[in-house]
Amino acid sequence: MGGLTVQSGIKAIEEEPEDGETTSSNKAALACIINSEISAVLAVMRRNVRLGGRYVWGDDQLEHSLIQSLKALRKQIFSWKHPWHTINPAIYLQPFLDVIQSDETSAPITSVALSSVHKILTLDLLDLNTVNVEDSMHLVVHAVMSCRFEVTDPASEEVVLMKILQALLACIKSKASIVLSNQHVCTVVNTCFRVVHQAGTKGELLQRIARHTMHELIRCIFSHLRDINKTEGSQVKGTNSIKQLGGIDSDYNFVGKQLENGNGRSECDIQPSLGSLASNVPGEFVTGMDESTTQYGNGKDAIPYDLRLMTEPYGVPCMVEIFHFLCSLLNVAEHMGMDPRSNTLTFDEDVPLFALGLINSAIELGGPSFCQHPRLLNLVQDVLFRNLIWFGLSLSPLILSTLCSIVLNLYDHLRTELKLQLEAFFSCVILRLAQSRYGVSYQQQEVAMESLVDFCRQRTFMVEMYANLDCDITHSNVFEELVNFLSKSAFPVNCPLSSMHVLALDGLIAVIQGMVERISNGLVTTELAPVNLEEYTPFWMVKCDNYSDPDHWVPFVRQRKYIKTRLMIGADHFNRDPKKGLEFLQGIHLFPEKLDPQSVACFFRYTAGLDKNLIGDFLGNHDDFCVQVLHEFAGTFDFQDMNLDTALRMFLETFRLPGESQKIQRVLEAFSERYYEQSPQILAHKDAALLLSYSLIMLNTDQHNVQVKKKMTEEDFIRNNRHINDGSDLPREFLLELYQSICKNEIRITPEQGSSFREMTPSRWIDLMHKSSKTAPFILSDSKPYLDHDMFAIMVGPTIAAISVVLDHAEHEDVYQTCIDGFLAVAKISACHHLDDVLDDLVVSLCKFTTLLNPSSVDELVLAFGDDTKARMATATVFTIANRYGDFIRTGWRNIVDCILKLHTLGLLPARVTSDAADDDSELSSDPRHGPRTNSVNSAIMPSVGTPRRSSGLMGRFSQLLSLDAEEPRSQPTEQELAAHQRTFLTIQKCQIDGIFTESKFLQADSLLQLARALIWRPQKVNISSTEDEDTAVFCLELLIAITLNNRDRIVLLWRGVYEHIASIVQSTVMPCALVEKAVFGLLRICQRLLPYKENLADELLRSLQLILKLDARVADAYCEQITQEVGRLVKANATHIRSSIGWRIIMSLLSITARHLEASEAGFDALAFIMFDGAHLLPANYVLCADAARQFAESRVGPVDRSMRALDLMVGSVACLALWAQETKGSLAESEVVKMCWDIGEMWLRLVQGLRKVCLDQREEIRNHALLSLQKCLTGVEEVRLLPSLWLQCFDLVIFMMLDDLFEIAQGHSQKDYRNMEGTLVLALKLLSRVFIQLLHELSQLTTFCKLWLGMLSWMEKYMKVKVRGKESEKLQELVPELLKNNLLVMKTKGVLMQRSALGGDSLWELTWLHVNNIAPNLQSEVFPDQNSEQFQPPEVQIRGKQETVSAPNDPVSS
After folding, report:
1. What is the largest CA-CA distance in the chain?
2. Which of residues 1397 and 1390 earns the better pLDDT score?
């Protein structure tokens, strides 16, 4: 049991083949091999005088028995008929073994015999199928161990020793080795170690071979550990752990000694006896066996081991003993009274190095299986790690390096069982080596750093340290301390950058890269549930239900970390004011509302950073609550099976013992009570523990206080402690052990403050081993980023700082790349965990290395940038981060924008940067009427006059170096300059700066808003009066417009800031400049592109165009034509999307203004014609506005007359829309809505004809007359509109009569020079009046006010008949008026409107009509009514005057 299992697949090398001929040949070959070995031994023996001659025995001369046995074997080997595996190996091995064990043979003979045995073993003649293989292997091992030979010279002795090593190694490597017992394997290892030790005085070759053999033995033995079942526990009686192992049968102890006989010959003897060497070899197997058991160790650690177990096939028992032996070799300095930190010249590092190498080999091969065997695991946990930590501060870099490799292997294989040991190693070794105050050399620090970086490269290491240690209140913050150590070590302080600094940075980046890998392996929990303690829960009792399920342990460790952090904050408060500190902890629910002693005691016990003086004073206080806390505090310690002095050391390390005797008594009483409760073996009662504790403290003061001259002796100490154990004495050995312990190791009454890295003392190690048996299970991390958010938040600040410092000091490209990789990894993690502030800090740090923000001339900066690898790599990284992780950049956009602007200033940006990547962008930009743009896409291709730097672009600047200008000769660039520019070109190309803006549509809202704010903020910090600064502001505005257009779906987010920025530019600019040009046309372009997609924002977008109306007159005049063209494009592209009157009012205002501008009027009229032609885009919302705009174009004298006439035609044509709307209204709306719509249509028509009336007064004859004709069409062509009668009254009053009045005044008051041919205009006006009246006579006659209307008309005819044009009456008018009047009267007569209806004086219309008609044409009555007597109807004079008074004057409006 516990031994190697026999594998079923193992077969003997000699099997009986089916072919008899083949079998015979194999037998013969093996026989020949053995025969050759016999010949070799005999040949050497014959050269020996004693063995080669004949002996006289009686009368016969006989050969030596050794020779006879070899010759006898020779006779037999060729006669054997059976297969070799059926032949007892002892038959053909024994002659050789006899030679090896004979004390008569010389070294050469023994050497050859050993070689023969080695050859037979390596031929695999012996396997598990061989007869009597077990006894044969035992014989071989015994014989080699009992090797005796005569030493003739040192060289031959070394050869024999090497052959012994070869033979023993062949035994272990043989297929039959598993039949060897534990005892034999231990014997082999012991023998090899003796040779190693003895080889120290011999040649170098023997030393190396011996050490190599020892390594091979260990590797071979421990490689079988994984094949052994976990059954060793049943083989050991009465114990589950082994503190010290050793023991080999006394028959198998190796000793080498030199003997001198009478002939002066010497021999090397390997025999079963203990020699002087055994006592000098540290850590050797020292055993003593009786018939039934063997004792391993001595004293109280001696463990009975079953002798039967050592005689079974080898397995775990021998491995336990061998491993313990290897660990004990590390105690060499302790045995020799040396300190590993002493001078390396006086300390032999050879043995520890050798032992560490062997231990490392054992762990490498058997590491994972150690967990299955408690004894081996216990050795690793206790003996090995204790020695590793003790040797960790060795001045030897070789020892430290090997030691760290072992710990790395142990972490890899056994970390679940080494939680506290790993914490101790890093706290007491690695982190102590980082403290310069401990006198650590640079070599030590370098080895420690290399080791730590190796650990950091284990992807789960830092996660597991954080989860198991940093998140546990009883452990130190190893992860945080290691990260701080690495970051500080990366900072070169008053020194150049060294490999140590880069190595530390590698460690940090390795941790970061591990997080990156975990991000790619699993989903990142972006929103971690915040940890809150809403009610009191004992923080020391927080438990996890399942340490293997992330759903359980992740919230658990995060809660523990939260508690630990709050406890440390509470500790800070407590150190300033204990009362307020406890109240703070109550406020955050770590203490109950009513303070209890247990909570305070656990706070004192488990919280790091507490002031130990304050704890001591609190615990020693006589207050009842403080006394209760003291007893609860003592109850947190585990003193089980612990020596009193060790327990007292542990207890007093946690606080400073108060100076007052009463406080000391209270503290020691609590300690004694707890100690006696757990370890009452020797002490009779707790008072004995109290008295003895007092005595130990007094002894400690006596021995270690320099002021005490006379020191207490052992007898004094024993005498002082008489009769304290319930009247009897304590055992003398017990007291002497306590005395020696105190004398050698002082109890520090004043413990170390803070969380500095303490030295590992024996008492601390004992405490650690006690805790390790009760600690929580080790949490294994998988490849998911469960805790990376919290870890990253802790380390990101120091990491960014470290990377920045190293990059700043670095001079090699490989270091640059390391730093850049680190930055990119940090950026990726920050983005995945949505850590915006981290990404901003990262961008700020990186931008400093681009050198783009350094003040210098353009040419110098371009060349320097091309030659600076660091700057180019940093620049590429900045924009890589911006493109990949822009979603999570906030204030960092300002720095990125600054870099972009600098590249723009240098002319290094590609032209496509300002493109908005829209589908129809190319069409707009290719339009020859498109407004000019400053430094935009076109300007990057076609340089603007006088500013080549702005518009050169990246390719332009590069090509400038290759071109020679004849008018302005310049020196040809050197090859270095060309190469620098080429590198710059490639770098900028790699940056993909345009992607930031073309892909801005995918940015998160917050990031997009911050990018826009950065583009708005930057121009505010420059002086616009400077040409370069203005160029910067223009470029920023271009970029702002580009991202606005690219984010049309999120225009609401950007619009307010963009509009305010453009408004500030427009309102603050009084002279034409590129900035205001870009602002105005950018605004128009935004409206033009977004109107089709954002109908809900159409009004707001169009309302923003009011800024154009607010432009300074000089600015507006400079850009009027281009503005009009853009407005025209906007109208043509989006007329169907403009629905509200507000939007149309602004559009029409912009178009109307152009009517007075020579260059812009044509474009404005085109836009208006597009809207009004055929009523394509006329709406009720824009009808009046369009009519008014058309009127203004008709009145405008800056364009050709033809355009004014076309404007009038547009007005006339719009009437068709009114008719159409009237028809649609009638069939689709309710009655009430129809009435309202009809009224609205009438109002629009009225506004139209009012506008035409105004044009009828134009100075230009053609326009005036065309307007009158147009007005006539509008008045007579509205049958389908169905206007209300009241509107006609308003029309006559406000339009026709007013027009007649205005024309009359013009004709009377203006010269012919101003108004040509007014006579013709008046004729047209009268004709219009007559025709409208005749056409509308039926409707008008129905009105109650018809009489007034008719009389007013007669009054205007009478007035026009008398008008004087150019100072004389018009013959045309005098002829026209009677004719028109007669025509009107005839129509009225025909339609029955004008006739005599009553007797004289009863019909006012009839009478008043003839009264006015007679004034104009007296004969008309007889002509129109020839049958009537004119006298009969003539009214009296008074009546006529009265009636005249009731008629409205021509200038007075006719009211309805």
Report:
1. 210
2. 1390
| Residue 230 backbone dihedrals phi, psi, to 5 degrees | -80, 80
The residue among 786, 236, 38 whose CA lies nearest residue 464 is 786
Contact 1408, 1443 (CB under 8 A): yes
Q: Is the pTM of this model over 0.90?
A: no
Strand, helix or coil for residue 834 = coil
Q: Give the dihedral sign, CA 806/808/814/818.
A: positive
Distances in whole angstroms, Cα of residue 788 to Cα of each of 239, 293, 826, 1382: 43, 55, 12, 104
The first and second tokens of residue 433, run together, are: 């080596």
Contacts of 926 (CB under 8 A, 6+ apart): none
CB 1115 within 8 A of CB 1072: yes
Q: Is 182 exposed, middle or buried (0-12, 13-18, 19+ CB in 10 A)?
A: buried
Catalytic residue among 104, 260, 312, 660: 660
pLDDT, tens digit, for every residue of 1418-1448?
Answer: 887 788 788 764 444 444 333 333 333 333 3
Q: How far apart are CA 1445 and CA 1422, in angstroms?
A: 26
- Strand order through the sheet with 258-260: 148-151, 266-269, 258-260
Q: CA dihedral in degrees (1045, 1050, 1052, 1058; nearest 10)?
A: -40
What is the residue type of 1159? E
Cβ atoms of 1172 and 1190 closer than 8 Å: yes
Which amino acid, residue 1275? L
Task: Return the DSSP state at 426.
Answer: I
pLDDT band at 266 (very low <50, low <70, confident <90, very high): very low
Cβ atoms of 1410 and 1358 within 8 Å: the answer is no
> How do residues 713-727 score in pLDDT, each as one tens digit?
989 888 888 888 888
Nearby residues of 41 by Cβ (< 8 Å), 6 or more positions away: 70, 96, 99, 109, 112, 113, 116
Q: For residues 399 and 852, what is the distance between their CA atoms, to the nearest angstrom? A: 49
The DSSP output letter for 314 is S
Tokens of 328: 């004990």
In contact, 1383 and 1391? CB cutoff 8 Å: no
Provide the token pair at 377: 């695991």
Q: How far, in Å, CA of 995 to CA of 1268, rounded?
A: 61
- Cite the DSSP H helix spans in 1214-1317: 1215-1228, 1231-1255, 1261-1276, 1285-1291, 1297-1309
| Whether residue 733 lies in the annotated active site | no
Cα–Cα distance between 561 and 564 in angstroms, integer? 5
User: Alpha-carbon distance 1437 to 1425, whole Å?
Assistant: 22
| Distance (Å, whole) CA 1078 – CA 1091 | 20
For residue 61, the surrounding DSSP H or E stretch is strand 60-62
Strands (E), 257-374: 258-260, 266-269, 288-289, 293-296, 303-306
pLDDT at 1047 over 80: yes
Q: Is 883 helix (H, G, I), strand (E, B) or coil?
A: helix
Give the residue carrying structure tokens 């209806």: 1397
Q: Which two tokens stand for residue 246?
A: 């050793």
Rounded CA gap, 804 and 1326, in Å?
A: 92
Q: State phi, psi for 1092 to the nearest 5 degrees.
A: -65, -20
pLDDT single digits (tens) 1311-1343: 667 788 888 888 898 888 888 888 888 888 888
Q: What are phi and psi of 725, to 5 degrees?
A: -95, 75
How far is the C-alpha of 669 from the C-alpha of 689, rounded, in Å? 9
What letter would DSSP give residue 148?
Answer: E
Based on the number of CB atoms within 10 Å of its own CB, is 130 exposed (0-12), middle (13-18) or buried (19 or more)? buried
Q: Where are the beta strands (DSSP E) in 98-199?
A: 148-151
The single-letter code of the amino acid at 909 is L
Residue 1250 · residue 1233 · CB < 8 Å = no
Using DSSP, state whether 304 is helix, strand or coil: strand
CA–CA distance, 1063 with 665 (Å, rounded to integer) = 82
